[in-house]
What does this fold into?
Amino acid sequence: MRDLLYRTVALMAEIHDRIPTLNDRFPTVLSDKQLHFLVIGLLGMLLFFIVHPIFQTLIRHGRGIVVSWFYVLTLILVITFGIEVGQQVTHTGRMEFADMVFGVLGFLALFAVFAVLRGLMLLLARSRRRR
It folds into this structure.
């Protein structure tokens, strides 16, 4: 997981370095803020057009809980990353990748317990309806 994060950061840094070079080749040079506006805006729309149909299909097939799980997992990743960055900036703790991993694992473990209990309750409810 750590290697994946470092490779992703390295790839993002490489892309971040190439975009201004591409920008300099055009007659109209955009500012850093304008580039962020365009690149993040385009990336967001690309992701939206990929994710939205998937989530619509999941909801149509009664799998709204999967959509909620992905949303909460995304929030947990952002929150844990924010906490670690905040600790680094404010010097209230050490910024550690392991803290993020354990935080996310906490959510996954507790969700697994929830999923097992929910599954048992659904099985029990189905068996009562069959009687």
